[in-house]
Amino acid sequence: MTTVFARHCASRTALEEIGSKWGILALLALGEGAYRFNALRRRVDGVSERMLSQTLQTLERDGLVTREVHSTIPPRVEYSLTGLGEKVADSLRGLADLLEGSVAEMSAARERYDARGD
Amino acid sequence: MTTVFARHCASRTALEEIGSKWGILALLALGEGAYRFNALRRRVDGVSERMLSQTLQTLERDGLVTREVHSTIPPRVEYSLTGLGEKVADSLRGLADLLEGSVAEMSAARERYDARGD
Questions:
Q1: B45, A5: Cβ pair inside 8 Å?
Q2: Residues of B in contact with A22 (CB under 8 A)
Q3: How far is Cα B30 from Cα A39, in angstroms, rounded to an integer?
Q4: pLDDT digits 0-9 by tens, B36-89
């Protein structure tokens, strides 16, 4: 039985890889559809070429993302989600929707916390 | 309209804080019920005292976690989730269940990837 709580469990490693900032954002973007590298980089605001490339390799290795090379001239390389990747992206989309809808509540909480000054 | 994709949006900051390894694991643990600091530290295998303390402060400031001091001798300090924290933890539990159930699939994907050697 694997559990995300245990230091050496495979599901915890996966959680760390997916839970990285760029992992989450790349999966969310690919949840919208297939992307070419540069378009994906524009969608994930602020990511460097190197970080996005590393992130996609990790996600491809984990079986969440597929990299497809179309033999056109010049070759077209597209990234998309696998079946498992879709499920993970759906789950992350739920989290992102929740956070996007809770910004005011969280911002009010931060103001209260900072005003306490303890 | 806030979006996790935009670099300076509040929901992206929240996603980064919650999506941090210890943020996810602390929220998942507190989803099981209230914890005292040391018990929580044992549950979240591998976290240092300092990292857990910082993580809890961030989550408290974001309005996801409540810190309650009971005036016993010695004082008992308990951490639990707020209403918003419960919602976020539920969402993360869905993700963790998915990953815990996909360990074999992900491990097979990694072996295929590494065998390609490209």
A1: yes
A2: none
A3: 38
A4: 999 999 999 899 999 999 999 999 999 999 999 999 998 889 999 999 999 999
Domain coverage including residue B107: 10-116
Q: What is the ipTM of this complex?
A: 0.85
Contact A109 B63 (CB under 8 A): yes
Q: What number is the average pLDDT over the span A85-93?
A: 95
Asked if residue A52 lies in contact with residue A40, where contact means CB atoms within 8 angstroms, the answer is yes
Q: Structural domain tally of chain A?
A: 1
A54 Cα to chain B: minimum distance (Å): 14
- How does pLDDT run across A17-44, given as a tens digit for each residue? 877 889 999 999 999 999 999 999 999 9
Residue of A nearest to B44 (CA): A5
Q: Strand B35-36 to strand B65-70: parallel, antiparallel, or no bridges (unpaired)?
A: unpaired
- Environment class of residue A51 by beta-carbon count within 10 Å: exposed (0-12), middle (13-18) or buried (19+)? middle
Residue A1, in any domain of the structure? no
Count the residues in chain A.
118
Amino acid at the residue A108 = A
The answer to whether A104 and B11 are in contact (CB under 8 A) is no
Beta strands in chain A (DSSP E): 35-36, 65-70, 76-81
CATH code, B61:
1.10.10.10
